[in-house]
Amino acid sequence: MTKLTLPLWINGQRTESRSSRSADVTNPASGEVIRRVPLANRADVNSAVAAARAAFPGWRDTTPLRRSRILNKFRELLETHRAELAQLASEEHGKTLEDAAGSVQRGIEVVEFAVGAPHLLKGEHAENVGRGVDCHSMLQPIGVCVGITPFNFPAMVPMWMFPIAIACGNTFVLKPSEKVPSCSLRMAELFREAGLPDGVFNVVPGDKEAVDALLVHPDVRAVSFVGSTPVAKYIYETAAHHGKRVQALGGAKNHAVVMPDAELDFTADAIMGAAYGSAGERCMAISVVVAVGEIADTLVAKLKARAEKLVIGPGDRKDVDMGPVISAQHRDKIVGYIDSGVQQGATLVTDGRGIKVAGHKGGYFVGATLFDNASTEMTIYREEIFGPVLVVLRVASLDEAIDLVNSNPYANGTAIFTASGAAARRFQNEIEVGMVGINVPIPVPMAFFSFGGWKSSLFGDLHMHGMEGIYFYTRTKAVTTRWPEVSDKNASTLVMPTLG
Ligand code: NAD
Questions:
Q1: How much is the pTM?
Q2: Is 283 an annotated catalytic residue?
Q3: pLDDT one-digit tens code per residue, 452-471
Q4: Residue 156 is part of which domain span?
Q5: Which atom in ligand 1 lies closest to the alpha carbon of residue 151?
Q6: φ and ψ at 79, to 5 degrees?
Q7: Ligand 1 — pocket residues by CB below 6 A?
Q8: Ligand 1 centre and the CA of 436: distance in Å?
Q9: Fewer beta carbons below 10 Å: N end or C end of the chain?
Q10: Domain count across the chain
Q11: Model confidence pLDDT, tens digit, residues 399-443
């Protein structure tokens, strides 16, 4: 049977791709091909950017309040269709339905934030910056913005970007991951139903060919990217070289530091969800535990007991804690990492290799895996595995733990588990990581704060959503005004004006 081939979404309608290339979209729980997705080519990208460019003047001049009302309607439709979006995300990604619904909700919260844009787009005003002179600033949209998103959050990560860009008066071209394209296309339909004018939001599923066409397109003004570090660096360098504003969020290796005074059952429960939720395919997943002092044996025993109880299976089964990983290739890569951990001398406490799920022979499953006694030289510590593999390192003191976390090139998220306010305060102050949790394992900031890492986890200056999102999608213009009275003396002077 021929599988349904998905369309592109250009200028407010489903559009057939002109590309001769396409890819399979697979259900990772069964290994079955469920759809085909076109891999947009340069001609497709040019059409999408042309539609976005043509829509820009009208949308820019639409009042922020009117834009906000359309976003509010879109928010209502997202709420109504939350289960459908979660189902699409779970089917194409593999995560459990409940987890997928949670991530859709976190995306909707960004739309909620974007509804408040009229307030946030107000500039500043100062009277009498000089005698008879006033100054005000305006935040204006920048034009056609682009989003390039990863496979692991099919609805949420795109919603970190396009609702805010559009609320600010920009138009948008989204290039979702070719592995999980359906949520983005469905959201485009819902946005149109909410009253969004044609061309304001466009979706071009594709791969490197589409990305490269977007990065060099002269009409693209800004690029938001979320994905792996090597690609983030490439996007940052290429788009910046072509004169675009860029924010490129990369990969992660997130550490949880567990102090000797931490409440260990609470901590072990928290780490379970953070390490193995979404099969470890979250950029904020905890993949390293740094056990400080004498608690390590007890903590590892508690983690082992919990990891062994996790139920692995298809994401749409109610009793399942952890679904499959995204592809056979990714599963094999994760298994290769586990092999390397054993070869390099880490203690394999729980082994997720070779797991079988009844009735799902073709699925891409890896069980919860736990290593103890790892060291910073080992590949399982140095590289982002992006799977259900948790690695424990043992250190003697908070000083050593902070040094260890700060020496890692990734710096997306981190957490400390402790009963000591002093230790927590020192940690939040000295740690060189963008998002920090104190007894909170996955410190993903709410939509009205900004999301982003430091170092190799972010290329660019501004994080996503919150006020940094508003600043990324606008540029500031400062206007200095004088209304001279007839009696004012001649303003002509060759001296640098000081206004005072
Ligand atoms: P990826 O880097 O392979 O792909 C991301 C996007 O870039 C996709 O749309 C893909 O089509 C495109 N792409 C891939 N290779 C490309 C290339 N060579 N040239 C141009 N474009 C290319 O990432 P992924 O596997 O989809 O997602 C997992 C990664 O994303 C992990 O590293 C994870 O940590 C990261 N991630 C980071 C965050 C964050 O907020 N920092 C959030 C989610 C995921």
A1: 0.97
A2: yes
A3: 999 999 999 999 999 999 99
A4: 8-250+457-478
A5: 26
A6: -60, -45
A7: 148-153, 157, 175, 177-178, 207-208, 211, 226-228, 231, 234, 249-252, 283, 384, 386, 412, 453, 457
A8: 22
A9: N
A10: 2
A11: 999 999 999 999 999 999 999 999 999 999 999 999 999 999 999
CB 32 within 8 A of CB 26: yes
User: What was the pLDDT predicted at 301?
Assistant: 98
User: Which of 42, 156, 207, 287 for mutating ligand 1's site (highest number of atoms within 8 Å of CB)?
Assistant: 207
pLDDT over 90 (residue 489): no
**Residue 323 is encoded by which pair of tokens?**
């679904």
Is residue 33 domain-shared with residue 130, that is, in the same domain?
yes
Taking residue 114's Cβ as centre, other Cβ atoms within 10 Å add up to 28
* Six-digit token string for 451: 């999301």
Q: 488 lies in a domain?
A: no
Tell me the mean pLDDT in the region 21-29. Answer: 98
DSSP assignments along 169-214, one per residue? T-EEEEE--TTS-HHHHHHHHHHHHTTPPTTSEEE----HHHHHHH
* Amino acid letter for position 401: A
Q: Quick check: is 100 in a domain?
A: yes
In a domain, 90, yes or no: yes
Q: Which of 409, 438, 467 is the last residue of a domain?
A: 438
Give the Å distance between the CA of 425 and the centre of ligand 1: 33
